[in-house]
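haha ok so turns out i had the wrong file open the whole time. this is the CORRECT one, sorry everyone. sequence first:
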Amino acid sequence: MGEFFACFAALEDPRENNARHDLHELLLIALCAVLCGAEDCSDMALFGRSKEAFFRTFLDLQHGIPSHDTFSRVFRMLDPGRSVRSERSDSSQGRLRMFEVFEP
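then structure:
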């Protein structure tokens, strides 16, 4: 999980210091949900709740799965002017080496 979290290390958490859910955990749940067909924040929350036992095997989820309102609020607060770019380290391996947050 460290590699995934490192990919988004430069992404600033736009929330106040009292945020209950870890930004990286929220992003990972959202990514998994979208890859499995989620289309909106309600789907992300539903997916997270349905797979909570699985996610708990490698995430802390100190305050459980974020609600659809939390997903929505966080995605509205993220800076759309920043993006994430990936690079391939070795074309023969075809593995992603890193993600880098950048401003266009």
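The first helix runs from residue 2 to 7.
again sry for the mixup
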